[in-house]
Design goal:
By secondary structure, the protein is α/β, with parallel strands linked by helices. It is 28% helix and 24% strand. The protein has helices at residues 18-24, 26-37, 84-91, 115-119, 156-174, 195-206, 220-223, 250-257, 275-280, 325-340, 357-365; strands at 42-48, 57-64, 72-82, 100-101, 106-113, 127-130, 139-143, 148-149, 186-189, 210-216, 230-234, 263-268, 282-290, 312-314, 348-353, 372-376. Strands 3, 5, 6, 7, 8, 15 and 16 form a 7-stranded mixed beta sheet that branches. Strands 11-10-9-12-13-14 form a 6-stranded parallel beta sheet, sandwiched between helices. Strands 2-1-4 form a 3-stranded antiparallel beta sheet, with no helix packed on it. Helix 1 crosses helix 2 (26-37), helix 5 (156-174) packs across helix 6 and helix 5 crosses helix 10 (325-340). Residues 1-34 have low confidence and may be disordered.
C-alpha cells in the first residue's frame, strides 16, 4: 500500500443513500446498476445454520449474492482465510446470529462499486484484501473503508494471509504490550510453528525484542527459520500435532535463558494449556497477552496471582487495534512494506477448495498447520 495514494482519503465513505443518488445523479446510478448486472443472483457459500462441529459448515450453491449498498463494494473472492476465530463462531463460543456465512478474511477483485466508493477512486477489477464477516463465499459485501489495496508484487494468497494473522501479529508485537517491553527485552511467544505466531516471532524481532519461541517437534523445521533467539522444541500430544506443554519445564528453561529475570511480554494464543506457564514466565512488571483459545478457553483466575511480580494481563482482540481507517492502513502499510523488502516470510501451508469447507476447519483444529490455511474460491 502506498500511504500517499491510498489512505483514508481514498476510501472515505459518504452517507448518501443510493435512492438519493438515483435522484441527484442518474448517470452515477446507472453506473452502479451496470456493475450489478454482471453479478449472479445466487452464489456458492459455506454457511452455518446450526452451531456445532466442523460439519456444521455446509456448502450451499444457491445462497443469495449480497446486494450492493451505499458506501460499499462487492468483492469476487479468490481466497478466504481460515482462522481459529472462525471455529469459535461455528461452535457458538462467540455468538452470532444464525444463519451466517463463515469467515472474516478474504482477497480478490472488486466486482461492483457503489457511487460513493467510485467517487473515491475504487474501480471494478482492483485487487484488494479485507476483513469483514462472510468471506467463505464467491462474493462478499465490503465497506469501502475496510478495503486494503494489494500492491503489485504481492500475491492475493499472501495478501489474504496478511489480513487477520498479519494484522493480529502486528498489534500483538507493537501495541498490546502497552510499551511494557523495550528494545532488547525478552519476549516469549507460544506456538511459533503455527500461523499467527510465525508472523509474531518475526515482527517481534523487527521491533528489537529478544524472542523465545515454543513449537512442536513436527513444526521445528518451520520455526527454526523465524529468527528466534531461543527455540524450545516440545514433544507432541500423542495422536495430534499439538505441543505437549507438560513435556518440558518451560518456566525453568525461560528463567535460565533470561538469567532469572523472565520475559517482559508473553504472547499466548494457546489458552488453557499454557496460562500457568505464561504467568510463571513473566518478568517483574511484565505483561501476559492472552489472545487465543487453541487448547480451550483460559479459566478464570484470581487477580491476586499477579501480585508477586506486579504483573499485567490483557485479553485483546484485533478490532480494537484497527478502530480507525488510519490505524488499519498504517499497520497494513508496514506489513506490506516488510513483505516487499523481504523482511517477512509468509508460509501458506495448505489451500482447500471451498467445497471442502469442513475439512479446512478440521485441519486447523487438529493443529496440523505450519502456516496460513486458505480456501480457494
Amino acid at each position: 500500500i502506498n500511504s500517499r495514494n491510498s489512505p483514508a482519503k481514498m476510501f472515505s465513505v459518504a452517507t448518501a443513500t443510493l435512492r438519493r443518488t438515483a435522484t441527484q445523479s442518474p448517470n452515477a446510478y446507472s453506473f452502479v446498476c451496470r456493475s450489478m448486472s454482471s453479478l449472479p443472483e445466487t452464489m456458492k457459500a459455506a454457511v452455518v445454520r446450526e452451531v456445532g462441529d466442523a460439519h456444521a459448515l455446509k456448502v450451499e450453491t444457491d445462497f443469495p449474492t449480497p446486494a450492493l449498498e451505499a458506501g460499499k463494494v462487492i468483492v469476487k473472492n479468490d481466497f478466504a482465510g481460515i482462522n481459529f476465530i472462525d471455529t469459535y463462531h461455528r461452535k457458538g463460543l462467540y455468538a452470532r446470529d444464525l444463519p451466517f456465512v463463515g469467515g472474516q478474511e478474504g482477497g480478490g477483485t472488486v466486482a461492483a462499486v457503489s457511487d460513493e466508493a467510485a467517487a473515491e477512486g475504487i474501480k471494478v477489477g482492483d485487487r484488494v484484501a479485507y476483513s469483514v464477516f462472510g468471506s467463505y463465499a464467491e462474493y462478499t459485501s465490503v465497506p469501502a473503508a475496510k478495503l486494503l489495496p494489494v500492491p503489485e508484487g504481492v500475491g492475493l494468497d499472501t495478501a489474504t494471509a496478511c489480513v487477520v494473522q498479519g494484522l493480529t501479529a502486528h498489534y500483538l508485537t507493537s501495541s498490546a504490550h502497552a510499551d511494557l517491553i523495550k528494545e532488547g527485552d525478552w519476549c516469549l511467544i507460544h506456538g511459533v510453528g503455527g500461523g499467527t505466531c510465525q508472523w509474531a516471532a518475526q515482527m517481534a524481532k523487527l521491533c528489537g525484542h529478544k524472542v523465545i519461541g515454543t513449537c512442536s517437534k513436527g513444526k521445528e523445521d518451520i520455526a527454526a527459520k523465524l529468527g528466534c533467539d531461543e527455540l524450545l522444541v516440545l514433544d507432541e500430544v500423542p495422536g495430534t500435532s499439538y505441543e505437549d506443554y507438560e513435556s518440558m519445564d518451560i518456566v525453568s528453561k525461560v528463567m535460565e535463558i533470561t538469567d532469572g529475570k523472565g520475559c517482559k511480554s508473553v504472547i499466548d494464543g494457546i489458552g488453557k494449556s499454557t496460562v500457568d506457564i505464561s504467568i510463571g514466565c513473566l518478568a517483574h512488571r511484565g505483561i501476559f497477552i492472552s489472545f487465543g483459545n487453541a487448547s480451550g478457553a483460559v479459566p478464570a483466575f484470581p487477580v491476586l496471582r499477579l501480585i508477586g511480580k506486579s504483573a499485567y494481563v490483557t485479553r485483546p482482540k484485533l478490532l480494537d487495534y484497527i478502530t480507525t481507517r488510519e490505524e488499519l492502513v498504517t499497520r497494513a502499510d508496514e506489513i506490506f512494506g516488510w513483505l516487499k523488502d523481504g523482511k517477512l516470510n509468509v508460509s501458506v501451508d495448505t489451500t482447500f477448495p471451498l467445497d471442502q469447507a469442513a475439512e479446512g476447519h478440521l485441519y486447523l483444529e487438529a493443529g496440523k498447520s505450519k502456516g496460513k490455511v486458505l480456501y480457494s474460491i
